[in-house]
Amino acid sequence: MSNLQQLRHFAALAEHGNFARAAEAVHLSQPALSRSIQGLEASLDCRLLDRHSRGISLTVHGQLVLEHAQRLLAGSHALKNAVSQLGNLEAGELLLGSGPYPAARLIPQAIGKLASAYPRVRIQLLIDNWLGLRRRLLNDDLELFVADIRDLEDDPLLHIEALSVHRGVICCRPDHPLSRKKSLSIEELLAYPLAATHLPQQISQELNSLSGKEQPISIQCDNFMVLKALVAQSDVLTMALWDVVAEDVAAGRLSVLPLANGMFQQTSAYGLVSRAGHTLSPAAQILRQHVLEDERTS
């Protein structure tokens, strides 16, 4: 029967693709690493590697074992982390994910409060769209994330708590040619490049229908801070949510474009997402509470 140590050695070898580098990474000699891999192959009764002059490559069995090994190792890490956090949160880490818009306002506020109260908790934040975050959550790479939930709501593997709704806007730099208009048509908007994060299917379909274009988004980027910087120094427009641009608009760094009545009236659909049936670690529970409190007072 294989053990976690052998699986850890195998995962390191798959990552580095070379016995020498993998052995160094796991603090073993090459012969010891080789014996560990051979023991794993013997216990599973299959060949996991093809050895060649350039290093190693995984067999079909090896690819399958690697997928399971990564999940088991992540689960083992999560268990140790949850146990270490019991008590006064003097240790452990929080693996957290966020969509681009919550990462621009909501998540930094909640992380700041958690870090101030529990400075010894190590926090790792991954920013991605909801599809990537879901995949990482189910692979145990994340414990909790905040993102758009429109395409996740019927997923039985997830536990979802909906958050406050914010209106959608289209922004530009204050001296943009369109900022002087009183009411804009879709044709006037599409005369300029439009930038956005990865859009939920519902919004994407509405925008495609409204514009008559299969790909109306000229620039896609899941880092909203990059999009804001791009808009501030060019004629590019960006789709955004009011809560993440309100301060920039008030400070005169961005302007909200006046759309024609009824045109593209979208809102946010943020949610807190974790695995169904899984208990959150103490750190994740505290961060969740901060997010809910900040949303109620925003």
From TrEMBL:
Domain HTH lysR-type: 1-59
One MF term in the entry's GO annotations: DNA binding
Gene3D superfamilies the UniProt entry points to: 3.40.190.290, Winged helix-like DNA-binding domain superfamily/Winged helix DNA-binding domain (1.10.10.10)
InterPro entries linked to this entry: HTH-type_LysR_regulators, LysR_HTH_N, LysR_subst-bd, WH-like_DNA-bd_sf, WH_DNA-bd_sf
Entry keyword annotation includes rRNA-binding: no
One Gene Ontology CC term in the entry: cytosol
Entry keyword set: DNA-binding, Transcription, Transcription regulation
Keyword hit for Coiled coil: no
Top-rank taxon, per record: Bacteria
Family: Belongs to the LysR transcriptional regulatory family.
Protein name: LysR family transcriptional regulator
Organism whose genome encodes this protein: Halopseudomonas laoshanensis
